[in-house]
Amino acid sequence: MKFLAVITIVIASLTTMSSCTTRMGAIQQMQNLAYDMRDNGQYYTVKDWKAAAEKFADLRRKMAKYDYTPAERRQIGEIEGQCARYMVQGVKDGAINGIMSVGNEIKGILDGLGIKY
Fold first, then answer.
1. 6, 36, 49, 97: least buried by Cβ within 10 Å?
2. 8-state DSSP, 111
3. CA 7 to the chain's CA centroid
4. Averaged pLDDT in 10-residue chunks for the chain of 117 residues
5. DSSP states along 32-101
6. All residues at 6 or more sequence positions from 51 whose CB lies less than 8 Å from its CB, including other chains
7. Using an 8 Å Cβ cutoff, are 115 and 88 in contact?
8. pTM
9. HSE (CB half, 13 Å, CA atoms) of 52?
10. C-alpha angle with apex 75: 74 to 76, nearest 5 degrees?
């Protein structure tokens, strides 16, 4: 009986740790995206901006599945703001406007965040 209880606790702990890793991994991936846009955005092609916009949207969908603490939500908001700022810069530089669908997609993301460009 004790053995079964120990196994149950171990499985529950591993599930919780895996969930936490995934939750925090999504935040880290968003931070890495922000760093990449900051460091390399000036060299992005239209294809690169499209990939960045898609990754940003995918990460937001992934993070929406988890319950984050208020502190984590604040961190996520700051990182999303950084990403949005770099996307706005891409719009202003005209790098994104080369293809309307990419520009409109990124503008839609910015509109959804309530960011003026």
1. 6
2. H
3. 35
4. 47 45 88 94 85 89 92 93 86 59 65 66
5. HHHHHHHHHGGG--HHHHHHHHHHHHHHHHHHTTS---HHHHHHHHHHHHHHHHHHHHHHHHTSSTTSHH
6. none
7. yes
8. 0.67
9. 30
10. 90
